[in-house]
Every structure is written in structure tokens, then in C-alpha cells.
């Protein structure tokens, strides 16, 4: 599929790749890992032909269909679903050719177009695009909105959907989960597992890499080492290799003992809740993998808080939301010192709204919310990077927080976040997203909070920095509330899970695998009462479930009827396709029958597409 032969690549004075030779075979799902700046994105640019090698050769099969995610999205008036459909170039070409053939009454060209459209699933293309958008979090109404109406993060989701729409043989994805929530990450993971082509994936989400990848390519120091297996297998093999080299044995022993103390302490404190047991397993997994991160450039700790009040925050019947849009109601929660709480829930259900309410950025709309006078919050928001001053240096950002601190103390602190030497004195405007994210996190750490509110803190952070954050959170004495699409961080940092869904916030008694199953059941059986809390009686719950089933019955009946219609249409289309494959049909005597079959094929294909769209709409109504 893809060959690199003695490839060398420089960017300015730096040599990113040096004498790299490797072969990637068809069907592989290859995770490309390595520190920022080791050449991961440049390797993709070589494959796409956007860069040329300084030496050596990159070779691919001729006429191979390659898909990748565009980094820019123009503010187009085009509906989102049509923008995604444009990802299938052959489909759009056939549609244009068919329109021209129909205008010129060219029966042979019309027959050829319909035959090819049927072969590539063109009649169901709009429904396929709708499913992609639905999986990435777009509602039915949003799919018809103009591309220009969406924010930057949602436009990146559109670019991802457009790349997935392409019937590619080779798919290149560079950090595809950065703009997704956990639900969309789980959906994309399942889609990629079933992707039939060859995949090259750059990601800093280790659970995602573990689930999707069959091989791992590690870039380091200009070299590229290919490992068989997913990220965890690569990590173990690399740890063994470093151990065999005797690398930093004493440091390794100290780190392992430090981590083991977390395992022992947590095992003694943990309840039998499934998420607590899952966290024990994740910490033990971290202990095994620790040697692979011994040469990390990052090492920091959260300072010990001066006070740990109890409770830190008490919520009694709190309603949260916006003036014109209530989101959550009836919240009865308390946050205690040492709590490790992960927030789960569908996109738009109110996780960030709850975090902003706890942080005081949003006033509670009702109920009572009490904060202890000694509460000190460290809040990392989703858009924290936008609050940084691009003209200021990392040291100046800290100086503004603590004018009395010495420059050496600030330099020492920033060193743990890999801002060393002159880098700590440079204006941050040209910094990468990862560097800005590290600085934003450093500012949160420096404030010595006793409650951490972290809303997607790992966006733009590489694997080494994520590992350092996991270690710091393990040692942190205060409380943590975390929203993240990084399941590894959720598993290692949290021993309680709250489910934010259907206007409520309640305990989730399960682990992240259970949450993935909950999402599937929610999509397949929207009348489920899985999200009900223990408040209503069993009788009330049965009555409520019966009412929901009764409300859903007309929609379910409609869905079954549409299923039957799709089966009939697909069967007839298959019969027509078989008839059109008969060479005798194209003789002059059969011209009338050929024309009739072609017209029927076109009409049935259009009808099938309409029925599939109706099925999607009914399914969304059932889900709602």
C-alpha cells in the first residue's frame, strides 16, 4: 500500500526524518505517535504530496483514493449535508454527468450513470451522509443549516464527516478527536474499527489508539520504529527496551514506587463501585507503562491546598442554564474534599453549563447553591486558550498572578511544563495550540486551588503531557470535577461518575464501558427509563414507561413500515441491476425495454433515498 525508502526530510535546519524505510500494508490501522515536532504531520504531508523528500522516495499505488480532513472550512451558504456529500467526488461527477445525459436524451449514458450510481450506493448517499452527521452530533435540522452558520469547532466536524464520506482506500486522520465530545469519539471509534481501507491515525488519545489501531509507528530523533500492536502494546515494548538499556534505573524505581503507593492507597479506600474498580485497573496499567515516559519533558505537581473545607459546594434543588434556556433542574449534590468526579452525558446535555455554574460564571436560576468561604477554584474552561494574552510571555502571565514572586521561582515552575530558557520569555502569539494549552494549565496549577474544574483540559496536549497531568491529579489533595473525551484520563483521575442527561444530574453506577453501552441503548431504545433516578416509585416509573411506549407506538409503526418499503425497493433495484447486466438487453429490439428499466431504476433509486431520509427523521423523533 505505502512504501518509504530511505526517506530524509528537513524543515529548516531540523532533520525530522533521517533514512526512514518502512512498508505499510493494505488494511493496516496504523497509529502514528511521537512528541510534538517529531514529524508526524509532515509525514502525512509527504503521503499527500504536499511536501517532497530531501532524499529517498515515498511510493503509493496508482489512482489510489486518499481521504484526509481539511484544516480550513470556508463560510459557505451550502447546507451542511450537501457539503459532506461533496466528499464523494465520483458521486458528484456522476450526478453532473447524469443531468447532462438526461438533457441530451442519451439513453446509453443514462444507463451507464445509473448502473454506476447503483454500484457505489449513490441512491443511499444522502442517507449515508445523514448518518455520518448524526454520529458526529448534528441534529436533523442542523444538517440543513448553512456551513457558514457553524462555529470553527463544528466546521471541523463537518470536514471530518466529509472525509469519512469519501469512499477511500487510504484515510489520513490528524487528531480527529480534538473537536469532539465523548459521545462522538465513541461513535467515530466504532466507525474506524469497521473501516475497510488502510488508516493512518495521529492521536494523543490512548484509549482511542488502543481500540482502533493494529500497528504503531513511533517517531523519535529522526527515526521511525514500527511496532505490531496498539498503543498499550507499543508502550510495554518500549518500556522493556528502555529497561534493557538500563536507562535511568534509579529514577524509574522511584517513579514506580510513587505510582504503586497510589494503587495501594486507592485500593484501601475504594468501594465496590464498578468505576472505582476500573480506576484501580487503570492506575495499575499506568504503573506498568510508566517507564515508557521516563524521558518525558514534563513533570509538575498541584501544590497542596492551604485548606480543604467540607463540604466545598452544596447544591440543593439547583436549576442551571441561561435566561432564555433552562438546561438542568433539581440538582442535589455536594462536593467533598478528595472527590474525583467525571461528568458524562450527551453533547448539549449541560455538562459545561453545570461546570460554569459551579465556577460562578453562571448564576443559579433557582434552588440554593452554597460555596464554603475558603473555597478556591481552579477553572480550566474549554476556551481557556482564548483568554491568554498573545503579546505576553509565559513568565509575564505568571507575574500578573503573583507580582512578588522571583523570576527564578517562576522559571523553575514553568520548567515543569517545558517552558525553559528563552522560551519562557517569548510572546506566546506564535506558540502552538499544545504550548498554549500547557501555559493555560500552568496558570490554573499556580493558583493553588482546592477544587479543580477541568472542562476538556487535554485538547492539544500530547501523550507525555497527558501522562504528566494524570500523575499530578493522582497526587492532588483537593477535589476534581472533570469533563473530558479522553477516556484514559477519566478512568485514572475519577472514581465517581455523574450522568448529565435529560435535564438532570445523577450518579452513574458503572464504568466507561457501561456508559458506551448506555449510549447504544439510548439510541436503539429511546423509550428506555435507564436515566430515571430513584425518586419516583416503581408504579410511577411503570406508568411513565407505558406512556412513553404509547407515545412512541405510531413512530415505531412508521419505522417498521419504512423498513419494509426499503427492503422492497432494494429487492426490485437488485432485479433491475441483474436485468441490465444481460448483454442481450442492449440490442436494438430491446431498446424500449432498456429505456423502461433505466427510467424505473432512476425512479426507484430516488424513491429509496427519500424513504431512507424519512427513516432517519423518524429515528431522530424516536430518540427525542
UniProtKB/TrEMBL annotation:
<dbReference type="InterPro" id="IPR027417">
    <property type="entry name" value="P-loop_NTPase"/>
</dbReference>
<protein>
    <submittedName>
        <fullName>ATP-binding cassette domain-containing protein</fullName>
    </submittedName>
</protein>
<feature type="domain" description="ABC transporter">
    <location>
        <begin position="313"/>
        <end position="527"/>
    </location>
</feature>
<dbReference type="InterPro" id="IPR032524">
    <property type="entry name" value="ABC_tran_C"/>
</dbReference>
<dbReference type="Pfam" id="PF00005">
    <property type="entry name" value="ABC_tran"/>
</dbReference>
<dbReference type="InterPro" id="IPR050611">
    <property type="entry name" value="ABCF"/>
</dbReference>
<dbReference type="InterPro" id="IPR017871">
    <property type="entry name" value="ABC_transporter-like_CS"/>
</dbReference>
<dbReference type="InterPro" id="IPR032781">
    <property type="entry name" value="ABC_tran_Xtn"/>
</dbReference>
<feature type="region of interest" description="Disordered">
    <location>
        <begin position="526"/>
        <end position="566"/>
    </location>
</feature>
<feature type="domain" description="ABC transporter">
    <location>
        <begin position="2"/>
        <end position="246"/>
    </location>
</feature>
<keyword id="KW-0547">Nucleotide-binding</keyword>
<dbReference type="InterPro" id="IPR003593">
    <property type="entry name" value="AAA+_ATPase"/>
</dbReference>
<keyword id="KW-0677">Repeat</keyword>
<dbReference type="Pfam" id="PF16326">
    <property type="entry name" value="ABC_tran_CTD"/>
</dbReference>
<dbReference type="InterPro" id="IPR003439">
    <property type="entry name" value="ABC_transporter-like_ATP-bd"/>
</dbReference>
<dbReference type="Pfam" id="PF12848">
    <property type="entry name" value="ABC_tran_Xtn"/>
</dbReference>
<dbReference type="GO" id="GO:0005524">
    <property type="term" value="F:ATP binding"/>
</dbReference>
<dbReference type="InterPro" id="IPR037118">
    <property type="entry name" value="Val-tRNA_synth_C_sf"/>
</dbReference>
<feature type="compositionally biased region" description="Basic and acidic residues">
    <location>
        <begin position="539"/>
        <end position="566"/>
    </location>
</feature>
<keyword id="KW-0067">ATP-binding</keyword>
Amino acid at each position: 500500500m505505502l512504501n518509504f525508502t530511505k526517506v530524509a526530510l528537513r524543515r529548516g535546519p531540523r532533520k525530522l526524518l533521517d533514512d526512514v524505510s518502512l512498508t505499510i500494508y493494505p488494511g493496516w490501522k496504523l497509529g502514528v505517535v511521537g512528541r510534538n515536532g517529531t514529524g508526524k504531520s509532515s509525514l502525512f504531508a509527504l503521503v499527500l504530496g504536499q511536501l517532497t523528500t530531501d532524499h529517498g522516495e515515498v511510493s503509493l499505488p496508482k489512482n489510489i483514493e486518499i481521504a484526509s480532513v481539511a484544516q480550513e472550512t470556508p463560510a459557505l451558504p451550502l447546507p451542511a449535508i450537501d457539503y459532506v456529500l461533496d466528499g464523494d467526488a465520483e458521486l458528484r461527477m456522476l450526478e453532473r454527468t447524469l443531468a447532462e445525459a438526461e438533457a441530451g436524451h442519451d439513453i446509453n449514458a443514462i444507463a451507464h450513470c445509473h448502473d454506476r450510481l447503483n454500484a457505489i450506493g449513490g441512491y443511499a448517499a444522502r442517507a449515508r451522509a445523514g448518518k455520518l452527521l448524526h454520529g458526529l452530533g448534528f441534529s436533523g435540522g442542523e444538517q440543513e443549516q448553512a456551513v457558514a452558520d457553524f462555529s470553527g469547532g463544528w466546521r471541523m466536524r463537518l470536514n471530518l464527516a466529509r472525509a469519512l464520506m469519501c469512499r477511500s482506500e487510504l484515510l489520513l486522520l490528524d487528531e480527529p478527536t480534538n473537536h469532539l465530545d465523548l459521545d462522538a469519539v465513541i461513535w467515530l471509534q466504532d466507525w474506524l474499527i469497521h473501516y475497510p481501507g488502510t488508516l493512518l491515525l495521529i492521536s494523543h488519545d490512548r484509549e482511542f489508539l488502543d481500540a482502533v489501531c493494529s500497528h504503531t509507528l513511533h517517531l523519535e530523533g529522526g527515526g521511525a520504529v514500527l511496532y505490531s500492536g496498539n498503543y498499550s502494546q507499543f508502550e510495554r515494548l518500549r518500556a522493556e527496551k528502555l529497561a534493557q538499556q538500563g536507562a535511568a534505573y534509579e529514577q524509574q524505581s522511584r517513579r514506580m514506587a510513587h505510582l504503586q503507593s497510589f494503587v495501594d492507597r486507592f485500593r484501601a479506600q475504594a468501594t465496590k463501585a464498578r468505576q472505582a474498580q476500573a480506576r484501580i485497573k487503570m492506575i495499575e496499567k499506568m504503573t506498568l507503562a510508566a517507564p515508557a515516559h521516563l524521558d518525558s519533558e514534563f513533570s509538575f505537581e498541584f501544590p497542596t491546598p492551604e485548606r480543604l473545607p467540607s463540604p466545598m459546594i452544596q447544591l440543593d434543588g439547583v436549576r442551571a442554564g441561561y435566561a432564555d434556556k433552562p438546561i438542568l433542574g433539581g440538582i442535589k449534590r455536594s462536593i467533598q474534599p478528595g472527590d474525583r468526579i467525571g461528568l458524562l452525558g450527551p453533547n448539549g446535555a449541560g455538562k459545561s453549563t453545570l461546570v460554569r455554574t459551579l465556577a460562578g460564571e453562571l448564576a443559579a436560576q433557582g434552588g440554593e447553591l452554597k460555596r464554603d468561604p475558603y473555597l478556591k477554584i481552579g477553572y480550566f474552561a474549554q476556551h481557556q486558550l482564548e483568554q491568554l494574552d498573545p503579546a505576553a510571555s509565559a513568565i509575564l502571565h505568571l507575574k500578573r498572578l503573583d507580582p512578588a514572586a522571583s523570576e527564578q521561582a517562576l522559571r523553575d515552575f514553568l520548567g515543569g511544563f517545558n517552558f525553559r530558557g528563552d522560551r519562557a520569555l517569548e510572546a506566546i502569539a506564535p506558540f502552538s495550540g499544545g504550548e498554549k494549552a500547557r501555559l493555560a494549565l500552568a496558570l490554573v496549577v499556580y493558583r493553588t486551588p482546592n477544587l479543580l474544574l477541568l472542562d476538556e483540559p487535554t485538547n492539544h496536549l500530547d501523550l507525555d503531557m497527558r501522562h504528566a497531568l494524570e500523575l499530578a491529579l493522582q497526587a492532588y489533595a483537593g477535589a476534581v470535577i472533570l469533563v473530558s473525551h479522553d477516556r484514559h484520563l477519566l478512568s485514572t483521575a475519577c472514581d465517581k461518575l455523574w450522568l448529565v442527561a435529560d435535564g438532570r444530574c445523577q450518579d452513574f453506577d458503572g464504568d466507561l464501558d457501561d456508559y458506551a453501552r448506555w449510549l447504544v441503548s439510548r439510541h436503539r431504545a429511546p423509550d428506555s427509563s435507564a436515566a430515571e433516578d430513584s425518586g419516583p416509585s416503581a408504579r410511577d416509573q411503570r406508568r411513565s414507561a407505558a406512556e412513553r411506549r404509547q407515545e412512541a407506538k405510531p413512530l415505531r409503526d412508521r419505522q417498521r413500515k419504512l423498513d419494509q418499503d426499503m427492503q422492497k425497493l432494494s429487492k426490485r433495484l437488485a432485479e433491475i441491476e441483474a436485468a441490465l447486466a444481460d448483454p442481450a438487453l442492449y440490442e436494438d429490439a430491446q431498446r424500449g425495454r432498456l429505456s423502461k428499466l433505466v427510467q424505473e431504476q432512476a425512479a426507484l433509486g430516488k424513491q429509496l433515498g427519500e424513504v431512507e431520509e424519512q427513516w432517519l427523521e423518524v429515528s431522530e423523533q424516536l430518540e427525542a
